[in-house]
Amino acid sequence: MNYSDIKSEGLQGVDVSKEITLKEYGxxxxxxxxxxxYRFYIGISEAIVENELGDFDYTExxxxxxxxNVKIEExxxxxxxxxxASCGGLTASEWLDLDASSKLYDAIRYYGSDNF
Length: 116
Fold this sequence. Notes:
By secondary structure, the chain is an alpha+beta fold. The chain contains 5 helices and 6 strands. A 4-stranded antiparallel β-sheet has the order 1-2-3-6, with helices on one face. It has a two-stranded antiparallel ribbon with strand order 4-5. It is globular.
């Protein structure tokens, strides 16, 4: 999916800026309650390019739709909860208490976007 195809309205992510959350962090999402899903936008590692400032930006995103009641650690059963949690400075029980979007972002940072 291209940047211009992702709607700004209601977009959530690591930063309040659409540009920063998608291009710099490669992660954003919409909560779609009527459909009962999260729609995640995950930066494609092969689509990172250097911008005019010498920084690197994501330019394309995969779309992943998951139910609002998803348990990330069950949906992606390869996730080692203690490892991912400790990478973020949390205990396993603290990490399990996070919302799905935070868990998915942590798991992507740990395992890489290509695994999701």
